[in-house]
Design brief:
homodimer, alpha/beta, 434 Repressor (Amino-terminal Domain), Rossmann fold, 3 domains, five-stranded mixed β-sheet, elongated, DNA-binding
DNA sequence: CCACGTCGCTAAAACGTTTTCGGACCATAT
DNA sequence: ATATGGTCCGAAAACGTTTTAGCGACGTGG
């Protein structure tokens, strides 16, 4: 009996390997091997199967494949990031690293809600994701998800459990690089205006900045790090304060591009030329803010896309059994535009 | 023979229904029915199964479920949007509409590359997504994907094939609302600075604005719509030009929030008070730009999240057999902040 | 002529569920 | 005693694929 008689008319359903095999006049097993470039198939037969598959527009059912391989070919990306500021670059890094050839990304937005997070987690586990990347909304450590039965990599926000694997940006190095760049520009009276002091990153960046400053034998202009909020308004206000307190300041390191925008505006208003009299460097390289400011903003790019790539690489390794753990730190780089320049 | 002897020690693999059944001392069939709240299961038995599942931390294999139900419980979100400006709100709308209870989202970023798009498409088809939402990078019509065997809804950018189903924002109504708001504020000399003229949306918004203007018996200040680019720099330059050409202008409708920022800056520099002397309204409600400007920006919110919700609703309907077609238009709304105010 | 490999192919098992069908059992009515 | 009906439960098929084991046929060296 040939398979032909067994195959009923399909009503709207996808083409199956059985139908391909029937059309090529071979068994399902042979068809499978032919299409997957396995050996033990004659050249002529293979060609016949490939043609049949082509003609029927065959597309293998990934669920069925997943059943036998015990791999879903899927990773979960669990984010708490409301606006997607950080998750999108990470997501692109993930796609690049996995080649998106055999790995698809299941994206879930927990929106900072722990319940929703649990919910998504259950769904991902049920889908048998091969691995999971957890992207935090802010760089501070977050609670560990614990043992889930699949590898997990935390990106941007590290897990609070050192047994987990985390990949984060080096905030301290970022702060250091920013100030070093200003020092290289010949600046001597450098101030630091930054954001919410409840963010660990604020302090890390400040520590890096202070370190670079003391390495250069300089003191912080304004006397102290100016903590506030991640907003342009704070950048403006703090700058006015600073100008009062320390009129001969020649550079400002802003803790974010939003703050830097405020700094720029206040400086412009006070009649200080940027970058000639005062140089300004931001943090984040959020292009909608940094590209089109007056002047375009020199800023520290935290390298989120790279972060995503590294996270994906670590996840891929863990999936193949080479599990890692601990916090891996990735440095960013300074993107030089026109808001900083050598003195004179 | 009990099932106990059949169940081998599992090495790292997920708990299976067979194990739950064994622990509860029932057959797999009964266990399935018990957990899915099907009838024909005794109350005591059901409880025993539920407890067993709980104790073993059982999570049903979605792939296996998908095999029998012929549904993957998955929708694809195919985006071409580089920065995720539009896709993220849409994605949230999708999650909301589907409740994320039984539907997960497979996110793919084609990055404007047609080849990559084809590639992702194949992957999604192979995963047997129940439906597909295609989000464009700009509001202009895009090429149809054709017939894929699953329902497709185009969001933001409509398909060029009227047989497809598209959901887009009503750009013309947006332009109209913006000007109507300015007219309500008592403004009489209203100009319109907008972006790239190769965007259909530029012209749609302008048409809406012009319509509202003529309804109010007003002429466009500056004489013509000022097309340029979607940037702050263009907003600044165009404003200076405009101020020269028509010094007694009392309102500007900017085609994007970025442009509006430039307008605001140029106005400030020219010594014009906003909103008292000149009112400014933007478009997009991109909060990082609109919330923290001086003053905070009144702007047209295109309602992307709602767009995503509607797209998801239409997709859900199509999945259940109620297919639609044609272009559905969703209106946004004006978000009033401080950059517009009644005259006097 | 026999032993032995190799090649090309197929049947069947396995993956983890849901669902259909029928059987066992019990109570009640005839 | 037999029929009737209802309630619980289990065996088995089905979903679409990969993989393993095995079967002929053919060639090759003894």
């Amino acid at each position: 009996m040939t398979l032909d008689e067994v195959v009923p008319a399909r009503r709207g359903r996808a083409v199956t390997l059985r139908e391909v095999a029937a059309r090529a006049g071979v068994s399902i097993a042979t068809a499978s091997k032919a299409l997957n470039n396995r050996q033990h198939v004659g050249a002529a037969t293979r060609l016949r199967v490939q043609n049949a598959a082509e003609e029927l527009d065959f597309s293998p059912n990934a669920m069925a494949q997943g059943m036998v391989s015990q791999r879903s070919g899927t990773v979960g990306l669990l984010t708490s990031d409301l606006v997607g500021r950080f998750s999108i670059p990470v997501m692109r890094g993930v796609e690049d690293a996995f080649g998106s050839e055999k790995m698809s990304v299941l994206l879930c937005d927990a929106r900072g809600d722990r319940l929703r997070e649990q919910h998504h987690l259950r769904a991902l586990i049920s889908r048998r994701v091969d691995g999971l990347i957890v992207v935090g909304a802010r760089p501070d450590p977050r609670h560990s998800l614990g043992h889930l039965g699949v590898p997990v990599v935390y990106a941007y926000a590290p897990s609070d459990d050192p047994a987990d694997m985390s990949v984060v940006v080096d905030e301290q190095a970022g702060g250091r690089m920013a100030v070093e760049h200003l020092v290289t520009c010949g600046r001597r009276r450098i101030a630091h205006i930054t954001g919410d002091p409840s963010y660990g990153a604020s302090h890390d960046r400040a520590a890096g900045a202070l370190g670079a400053l003391s390495d250069a034998g300089l003191a912080l202009a304004g006397g102290e790090v100016m903590y506030g909020s991640w907003s342009e308004a704070w950048g403006r206000g703090a700058t006015r304060l600073l100008l009062d307190r320390d009129p001969d300041l020649d550079a400002v390191f802003a803790g974010s591009d939003q703050i830097a925008r405020g700094v720029l505006d206040a400086l412009l208003e006070a009649g200080r030329k940027v970058p000639e009299e005062v140089s300004v460097i931001g943090y984040d390289n959020w292009e909608v803010l940094s590209l089109d400011s007056r002047p375009p903003l020199t800023t520290v790019d935290p390298g989120l896309e790279n972060l995503g790539r590294v996270a994906a690489l670590r996840l891929a390794a863990a999936i193949e059994g080479r599990e890692g753990h601990g916090v891996e730190i990735q440095a960013g780089r300074v993107v030089t535009r026109s808001s900083t320049a050598p003195l004179h």
